[in-house]
Amino acid sequence: MIPQIVVVDDDKLVLKHAWNILTDAGMKVAILKSGDQLIEYVKNNPAPDLILLDIRMQGMDGFETLEKLRQQEEPGKEIPVIFLTASEDEGTESKGLSLGAMDYIRKPLFPDILILRVQHAVELVRLQRDLEKEVWEKTRENEQLFLHVVASLADAIDAKDAYTNGHSGRVALYSKEIAKRFGYDEKGQDDIYMMGLLHDVGKIGVPDEVINKPGRLTDEEFECIKKHPAIGGRILGNIKEMPSLSKGARFHHERYDGRGYPDGLKGEDIPEEARIISVADAYDAMTSNRSYRDALSQEKVKEQIINGKGTQFDPAFADIMVSMIEEDTEYRMRDSKE
Fold first, then answer.
1. pTM here?
2. DSSP reduced 3-state for 144
3. Is the separation of the CB atoms in 92 and 20 below 8 Å?
């Protein structure tokens, strides 16, 4: 791939000299006379492989130009810059490097040195980007594998109860949508999706006959069911690489008014992710058939969510859930078997 180089200098002779040297070496070169021209060029053209930027220029100098360039670039996609300078001042070099420049090239420009420094810089940057891409792809591959394992575990948990098949997946989706509407970034949405998938993992420790009992639970059986958040919190708390993963499991049955379990937390003392999952979990429970009742009507579900604002649910997340219900005019947001 032919290197794309931009040279910025207010000295026409320097520009012509650099253009001749680099084009003779087989590179594609754009020459610009000022920092302002560079800023406009980068806005309107594909990013070059390297910028050679003079420090002492009329108007905006090289330091100011680099600062302005960095302000408009996306993090992680910064264009590498090498300063051109006739100065021997160490302070000048130190300032440029602190602003993110790769290196300095002294003027006057010597063809062999300029070509080698530019070639090495381009090769280094391309190698770094290839490595970053490979790491990103491997990381994404591992994340997808982990997600498949988690989804399979969630399915296994749901399978303990004949009436909750797919429950964890739906809760995860609803939670992710609530988080998105509340302003979570993409990673935050993915994290809460994972928490939603695993929020009921503690049911592994609850006997099947209790989970699947068709009639009303005894007080003793209900106390057994109430243990699943703490069990889930302990299980997921062992995953040290993802310390926040246990929040959804342990705290999704806490109530905003402090009357929930297992810890009786109140209001914003309950982790935010768990307050989101709590609304999503309750919504899915109401919109699915259970052993003790049929799914509720959409209007009844909406009424229950509204009635639970400030008592069972965080009002902010209950309001988002109500908006999602109102937008779902055909009542599709429910167990697909219904």
1. 0.64
2. helix
3. no
Domain architecture of the chain: domains with CATH: 4-132 (3.40.50.2300), 159-327 (1.10.3210.10)
Q: pLDDT, tens digit, for every residue of 187-235?
A: 999 999 999 999 999 998 888 888 878 778 899 999 999 999 999 999 9
Is 203 among the catalytic positions? yes
* Residue in this structure with the two tokens 């057994």, named with its chain if needed: 224
The runs of H, that is alpha helices, within the chain are 12-24, 35-44, 62-72, 90-98, 111-158, 167-182, 186-197, 208-211, 219-225, 228-237, 246-251, 272-286, 298-307, 315-327
Residue owning tokens 């965080």: 314
With vertex at residue 166, the alpha carbon angle to CA 246 and CA 163, rounded to the nearest 5 degrees, is 105
- Tokens standing for residue 120: 């090495």
Residue 283 in tokens: 């919504």
Phi/psi of residue 254, nearest 5 degrees = -70, 150
Structure tokens at 6: 């931009």
From the list 107, 133, 176, 203, the catalytic residue is 203
